[in-house]
Structure formats: structure tokens, C-alpha cells
Q: What sequence folds into this?
């Protein structure tokens, strides 16, 4: 093998090693995430123990992003966690986050998706819930364990006292041992039944809780709680607005009724006077009606006395006959006036001196086709008037 071939093979090995190293670096360091699109969201916590930059963000146990920054929120007196989520994962806008911490203190963010169809956008802010401290849980468990051990020690002491009393009872043969044994057997049977019922109850609870549908329903109920709280808050706001509107209406009504309250005495006096006048008017009307309803009243006689009606009927008939008799007289008067208009000389000497042609002025106008000629007549005193 020549030196040139050896150098070529060494160079190939170096290139292969570098390619493998770059591949492992990209694979282990997840450098491909720098080319993936992502969006940032802010999560508000009261406390974020166990969360640190680069902590994973998971959805249903799968990593969908990581924590970029953890900072204090002095305004809300809490913690704000900035998380980067892969853009290929669409999260509902009503999603929440929860801190999950293992017993070793390592934490991650668990996203609890909501039910809304609108997705989260870049820069959105959601609420989060802090997880319990595992060491605090261990401390509480230790305290409860200590209390349990103390109770167990007290129970053991009581059992020891009971055994001592039983031994004394058996040695001294006091009481009815058969009756005591029978009662103890009954108590044990009842205890066995109670334990059996408790076991069945626990099994049923395990079946209910272990059912995936029940778990999904419980999770959906827990996810719906924020929306229920928001709806309740909106309802309270609407109720507050309604109460304020009612209060304003009451103020407006008070401004209307205040003048009425001030003039209430005058209005009552006027109303009392009006009612008194109405009473007097009703009394007068009642007297008038009673007068009409009396036996001597005109209306009562018209309604009850047929003779009065017959008299009125005869009077009407007489008036009709009288009018018929007057008609010829009126006709004669009309003819007389017409004759006087045609022959005025029949009334005095003036008509005899200047007799008329027997036509009225309207007839003369119709014959001449124009205005009748005015003739100067000499004023002649009628013969029946006395001289000066």
C-alpha cells in the first residue's frame, strides 16, 4: 500500500467520523427544531416550582414544545412561563396548563386542551395550575403515618386490655361464657358482612373510576369548569348592569313621584272636594229619578196612564185636521196677493187713475227681454186716508 492510498483512506475515515458525529449531534441535540416553525404562548402561574428553561411541554404525554423562559410577574404577584409550541400542533384557545413534578423534583408542563374550535395564536396568554410539592406530600404522609401509628398503638393497648379481661373471665368463670361467645360470633358475622359490602363498594368505585368513559367525562367536566366560571362571571356582570339600570330607573321614578308627594295634601283635598261634589250630583240625580218615578210624574203618567196618551194622540190628530183646514186659506191668500200684485187698483184710487196691464214686473221683464222701463208715477194718496 502506497502512502497516497493510506492518506486517502485516513481522510475517508475522518470524513465518515465527522458525518457520524454531526448526525449524532443533530439527533441528540434536536437541532432540527431550529428549522421547524413554532409559536410562543405565555402561561400564568401562582407558583412554578420544578419548571426551568428547556423543560418539556407535553400533550397527552407527548412532547410538543419546550419552556423558553421563566420570569416573575410583579403585577399579578405570580410567575409567567414562556413556552414554544410546534406550529403543527393546534391547541384550542381555552386550553390550560398544569405543572407536573416527579418525586425527584423534575417537572414539565402538561397542556390540558379545551373544547373551543378556535386555535391558540402566537402571543396568547392562558392560565396554569401549579402542582403540589412531592416533599410536602411526603411530609403530610409522614404526619398522617405518625398519627396512624399512635392510633394503632392505642388500639393495641385496648386489645391487650380486652384480652386481659377475657383471660380473667375465663379463669374466674364469671358471666355466661356461651352467651359472650355467641354475641362475639354475631358481631364477627356482622363485621364480615360489613367488610363484604365495603369490598363490593370499593370494587364498584374502582370499576366506575377505571372506566375510560368515566375518566373522559371527569376530564371534560374539569375542563368545562373554567368556561362555567367565565359564564358565571358574565352572568354576574349582566346582573350588576341590570341592578344598576333598575337603580337608575328608581331614581328617575323618585324624581317623578317627589313632586306628587309634595303636592299630595292638595291633591287629597281636591280629590275629597271632587268626591263630595260627585256625591251631591248623585244625590240630585237620585232625587230626580225618584221624582220621575213617582205616580204623579209626567213620565210615569205617560208610561202608566193610557188616557193621557189618548189625549195626546187626539191632539195630534186635531192639529193634523187643523193644518189641512188652513191649506185652503193659505191658497186663497196666495191668490189674493197675486191678484193685488196684478191689479193694485182694487185697493184704492191710485190703481183707478193709472191702471195696470195685469202683468207682474217679472213677466214684463221676460216679455221685453231686458229691464222694465221705469215710469214716474205720481204719488196719490188713497181715498181711504184722511186729508191734512
A:
Amino acid at each position: 500500500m502506497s502512502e497516497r492510498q493510506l492518506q486517502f483512506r485516513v481522510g475517508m475515515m475522518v470524513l465518515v467520523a465527522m458525518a457520524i458525529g454531526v448526525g449524532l449531534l443533530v439527533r441528540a441535540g434536536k437541532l432540527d427544531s431550529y428549522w421547524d416553525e413554532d409559536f410562543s404562548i405565555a402561561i400564568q402561574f401562582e407558583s412554578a416550582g420544578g419548571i426551568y428553561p428547556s423543560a418539556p411541554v407535553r400533550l397527552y404525554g407527548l412532547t410538543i414544545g419546550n419552556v423558553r423562559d421563566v420570569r416573575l410577574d410583579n403585577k399579578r404577584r405570580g410567575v409567567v412561563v414562556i413556552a414554544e409550541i410546534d406550529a403543527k400542533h393546534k391547541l384550542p384557545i381555552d386550553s390550560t396548563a398544569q405543572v407536573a413534578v416527579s418525586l425527584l423534583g423534575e417537572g414539565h408542563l402538561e397542556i390540558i386542551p379545551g373544547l373551543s374550535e378556535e386555535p391558540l395564536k402566537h402571543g396568547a396568554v392562558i392560565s396554569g395550575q401549579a402542582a403540589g410539592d412531592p416533599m410536602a406530600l411526603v411530609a403530610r404522609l409522614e404526619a398522617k403515618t405518625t398519627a396512624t401509628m399512635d392510633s394503632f398503638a392505642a388500639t393495641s393497648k385496648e386489645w391487650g386490655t380486652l384480652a386481659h379481661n377475657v383471660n380473667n373471665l375465663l379463669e374466674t368463670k364469671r358471666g355466661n361464657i356461651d352467651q359472650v361467645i355467641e354475641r362475639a360470633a354475631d358481631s364477627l358475622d356482622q363485621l364480615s358482612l360489613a367488610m363484604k359490602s365495603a369490598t363490593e363498594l370499593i370494587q364498584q368505585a374502582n370499576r366506575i373510576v377505571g372506566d375510560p368513559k368515566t375518566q373522559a367525562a371527569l376530564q371534560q367536566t374539569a375542563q368545562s369548569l373554567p368556561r362555567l366560571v367565565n359564564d358565571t362571571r358574565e352572568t354576574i356582570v349582566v346582573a350588576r348592569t341590570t341592578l344598576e339600570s333598575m337603580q337608575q330607573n328608581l331614581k328617575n321614578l323618585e324624581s317623578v313621584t317627589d313632586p306628587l308627594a309634595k303636592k299630595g295634601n292638595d291633591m287629597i283635598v281636591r280629590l275629597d272636594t271632587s268626591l263630595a261634589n260627585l256625591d251631591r250630583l248623585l244625590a240630585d240625580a237620585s232625587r230626580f229619578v225618584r221624582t220621575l218615578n213617582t205616580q204623579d210624574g209626567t213620565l210615569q203618567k205617560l208610561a202608566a196612564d193610557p188616557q193621557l196618551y189618548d189625549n195626546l194622540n187626539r191632539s195630534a190628530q186635531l192639529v193634523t185636521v187643523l193644518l189641512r183646514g188652513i191649506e185652503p186659506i193659505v191658497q186663497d191668500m196666495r191668490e189674493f196677493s197675486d191678484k193685488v200684485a196684478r191689479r193694485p187698483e182694487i185697493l184704492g184710487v191710485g190703481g183707478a187713475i193709472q191702471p195696470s196691464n195685469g202683468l207682474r214686473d217679472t213677466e214684463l221683464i221676460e216679455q221685453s227681454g231686458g229691464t222694465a222701463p221705469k215710469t214716474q208715477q205720481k204719488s196719490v194718496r188713497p181715498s181711504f186716508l184722511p186729508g191734512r
Observations:
- The beta strands are 38-45, 56-59, 62-73, 78-86, 96-101, 107-112, 125-129.
- The longest strand covers residues 62-73.
- The longest helix spans residues 212-262.
